């Protein structure tokens, strides 16, 4: 949570809650693409340590695959991040990950 708070403190539309104990479910919805690969790794690792054994991490994202859905999402976020500055990213990053990259990262951290 410390990492998440630091990375996301400039986002006024994001709410973070620090549970007193481990939790069963954590959701990440359309956030990862605003982080570098290193930041994603830190965030996912921190979340892994907050899950109860057998807990679930639910990630909603648009995978970086050659599809109309990806290109539409990229164009939309490019306008929102780089032109209108409606979506904040400190480094002005738009870094969608491939499904393969995300699966490998999650497995490295211990997720099944």
Give the structure's gist in a few sentences.
The protein is α+β, with helices and mostly antiparallel strands. 43% of the residues lie in helices and 15% in strands.
Structure description:
It contains 4 helices and 2 strands; from the N terminus they run αβαβαα. Helix content is 43%, strand content 15%. With 112 residues, the protein is of the alpha+beta class. The longest helix is centred in the C-terminal third of the chain and has 16 residues, at 68-83. The model has no long low-confidence stretch (mean pLDDT 86). Strand 1, helix 2 (37-50) and strand 2 form a beta-alpha-beta unit. It has helices at 2-8, 37-50, 68-83, 99-109; strands at 23-29, 51-60. It has a two-stranded parallel sheet with strand order 1-2.
Number of strands: 2
Distance between the termini: 21 Å
Taken from the alpha-carbon principal axes, the silhouette is globular
Strand content: 15-25%
Please outline the major beta sheet: 2 strands, parallel
DSSP helix count? 4
Helix content: 40-55%
* Coarse structural class: alpha+beta
Which stretches of 5+ consecutive residues score pLDDT under 50?
Answer: none
Mean pLDDT: 86
Radius of gyration: 14 Å
N-to-C series of helices and strands = HEHEHH
How do the strands of the widest beta sheet line up side by side?
Answer: 1-2
């Amino acid at each position: 949570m410390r990492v998440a708070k630091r990375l996301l403190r400039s986002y006024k539309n994001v709410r973070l809650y620090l549970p007193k104990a481990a939790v069963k479910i954590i959701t990440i919805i359309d956030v990862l693409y605003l982080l570098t690969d290193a930041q994603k790794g830190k965030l996912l690792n921190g979340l892994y340590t907050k899950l109860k054994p057998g807990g679930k991490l639910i990630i909603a994202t648009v995978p970086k695959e050659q599809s109309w859905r990806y290109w539409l999402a990229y164009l939309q976020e490019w306008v929102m991040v780089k032109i209108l500055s409606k979506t904040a990213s400190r480094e002005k990053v738009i870094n969608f990950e491939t499904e393969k990259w995300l699966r490998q990262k999650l497995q490295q951290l211990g997720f099944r």
